[in-house]
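The protein record passed on below.

***
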Amino acid sequence: MRLHVTYAGGTIGMVDSPDGLRPGADLQGWFGSQLHGIELASNISMSTLDPLIDSSEATPEDWQAIIDDINAHAETADAFLVLHGTDTMAYSAAALSYALADMGKPVVLTGSQYPLGVVGSDASANVTGALRAAMSHHAQGVMLFFGHKLLAGNRATKTSSWAFRGFESPSVSPMARTGAPWRWYGAPSTGAGLAHPSPYTRQDIAVIDVVPGMSAARLRAMTTPHPDAVILRTFGVGNIPASEPGFVDALTELAQAEVPIIVASQCYQAEVMLGHYEAGNALARLGAIGAHDMTLEALYAKTVFLLSQGKRGADFARWMDRSIAGELTLQD
């Protein structure tokens, strides 16, 4: 089996400097030492992005750089491993899942909370676990391995900045847990895919958390000038302070300007149901789009993906409401 590794950056390959951690470790040499004497070692290729990405500074163009590297090796590799910083790894995993939905080869992202040179680092466990996942016949689509768990890439969210089990999957079960032997639980449905997608480009998307006492003036200021889309993170199953003077009017202005309003929940686990309560009925009347049970990372990356494909209006809403790569649960 042939494996290609894309080293994108992140804590795993950082070293100390007077200004804090920065990229600089000999990751390729370390990677070779981890696999010394293993038959797979001779069937691994590696690319290093230039420049390396601190994942807190990642952009959709960086997502595309990783995708381009994977596509460049798609004919010669059977599986892929992406080494990535943890801060936005779930965003990148979701983004890759949409762009590579039709590739048909497993891609596993991983990283670490400590650099590889630190005693007690989780780097080795995460890399070897990700390798095993990528080589397994169970592997499917884009995945994220971290803290002894394999998660569907577009179902993962970062839950801790320090714990070795730093990622969870709030709406679906993990795909697998490590052990002797590993326990495999299956994968979410694959989704419809989108053939020959256009590259990711940066989009102007406002992500707004609704909070108690939020005024219409503040909402209007946060959406002026009008963005390309608004992700409104609401209470519960999609509720807003609809009685707040002018609040619904501000949203109406966006809808009339054909700005997509995508409604997510602030809850860790939730299924958005617009109109289930009176407080969310105004959004339903405005034609807002429910986010189902998508994580913020999956939702944001999907919004960027669809806008990058030129999807607008009703076409955008249709694609947002369907599964591209297993990122949402469709109710019967």
